[in-house]
Amino acid sequence: QVQLVESGGGLVQAGGSLRLSCAASGRTFSSYGMGWFRQAPGKEREFVAAISASGASTYYADSVKGRFTISRDGAKNTVYLQMNSLKPEDTAAYYCAKRTVRTAGWVADDYRYWGQGTQVTVSS
Prior knowledge:
globular; mainly beta; 11 strands
């Protein structure tokens, strides 16, 4: 059973930074692509960032490119999302997800396992 547990969310002022973490259970963490998605109240879930199994390939939504960085640590079975220059429109619940292939991707339906989410609130 794969479990993904996010942490690191909170309340921050605009322009501030947060680092989200996603700890994954299981021995196959390093074999699969990982991603971050977010969902704001009343809006659909949207892609934020993704990373391949090796970490060599990353993808970002245009809205976060240049401000967010996704990374992974195989020794810790953890994927991170460093968020800088946060804006009020970044306010959302952020979800970590795991694919069943090695590549990175931005389509939510390609992710099989999901965490419970962590709330990020950016005040203006």
